[in-house]
Amino acid sequence: MSKSVRLLILFALALVLLWGLFAVLTDPAGVFGDPLMDWWAYDMTVDPQGAKVRYVAKHPEYDSFILGSGGSYDTAALGGALDASFYDLGFEAAPETLCDTARWILEDRAVKYLLLDLRFSDAAPKAQQGRPDRRVSDESAFAFYGRALLHGPKDGLLKLKRAFTHSVLVPYWCQYVPETGSIYGGRRDARPIPPLEIYLAREENAAFTQDAEPVSLTEIDALARAVGEIRALCDRHGTTLITVVGPVHESELAKYSEEDRLAVLNALAEQTELWDFSSGAVSREARYFYDPAHCRKAVSDLVLARILQGEDPFGGALGRYLPQGGPVTALFAPDYVIRDVALPILEYHHLTTGVPENDMTVSQTAFRDQLAGLLALGYTPVDIWQLRDFATKGAPLPEKPILVTLDDGYESNYELALPVLEALGCKSRPALSPWQTTAITSMRSRVWTRIPSARAFCPARASRTRTTPRF
Length: 471
What we know:
Layout: H1 3-26, H2 40-46, H3 48-57, E1 64-68, H4 75-82, E2 86-88, H5 95-108, E3 113-118, H6 141-165, H7 186-190, H8 196-201, H9 220-237, E4 240-245, H10 250-253, H11 258-269, E5 274-276, E6 289-291, E7 294-295, H12 297-309, E8 320-322, E9 345-348, E10 350-352, E11 361-363, H13 364-376, E12 380-381, H14 384-393, E13 401-406, H15 412-424, E14 429-430, H16 437-450, H17 452-457
Parallel strand pairs: 1-2, 1-3, 3-4, 4-5, 9-13, 10-11, 12-13, 13-14
Antiparallel strand pairs: 5-8, 6-7
């Protein structure tokens, strides 16, 4: 073999090694553990199905999981309510892949709870988000890593480009929060929600008003088999299974025939008990949803409150419980009227007798003057219970209602705000916060226990504390 040929071979081998090294170091889907960048928000956006499994495999502290395609649950609040450490393994996948993922996680560690979050779309043919990790598939290690090395450099260059052109680790195109697995909804949740006609006119909300293309639910049997296997796996491992058919907008429901939807519910009820929120009161209002198939996090909080504590602000119209065995004879169609009200909310935090130190602080004098001015203009402060009765029972509200909130549990809420509220006859809503520990002790012991007038003027006791579940 000539020297030039040997050099050519060595050069080719060097290129292959550099190719592979670059693919491993940039690791655009977290296949190799993302050793250089540790940028799991990006990896999960590229391959949510595989990257989430790989992330969980590196973190044994999680003992409870969410499977399915919803992605809007508050894992911290859910874990606090059930004394567990939840991770959202949700992604779009075929029923068999959901079952394989459940089998892997139940055999990998002791699991307290498994929340199976389903939609009618899970019984329709669908494209998967990414590719299953080898832990939940029968793909050989050679084929799995070989595929990653083959495509790695091209995708790695894009990852490097985005890493150097963005100063934050969760830019607009990253979809997941690595530490929870949940969909990143920060920007969408922070955006003001306007009147319905303006909300529907937004370009990104066009799907709510478009004519729905009919979709046949041809995978009902496959979904039922997968849920049945997951039920059996949970029973075998001593894991509590919570099965939910989550809320979707009526424009999403319109894709499927009533016969198919009823068939899905009956097929699931044959396998396990479940909660049906698919067509409750919120399904009629687009502003409860990011898009027709995904509800807002606030709605997911209501779903969990209904399941865990039996609370339903819609008077039973949010969803229903279906026992195992069925039969389910009708779709859920509650008689419920959604009522609108124009309600200004005044959100105060800290009060002072001196000059305010920042934008989150207001002087007691300014607080008094602002409320007195609003009263003079004909506004009437209302409390949370009045709003609940308006929404659920149609109880009348004043002509010009306002809601006054006192957030974060500062002691000044008691010492400075309460005397003003009493003098003006205003109702308010305080919030106890786990971050103000000194104020928490004071508010608990003095406001709620010793001062009846505080409870009278602040009737909607907040629940953002370490000892009270958020639901």
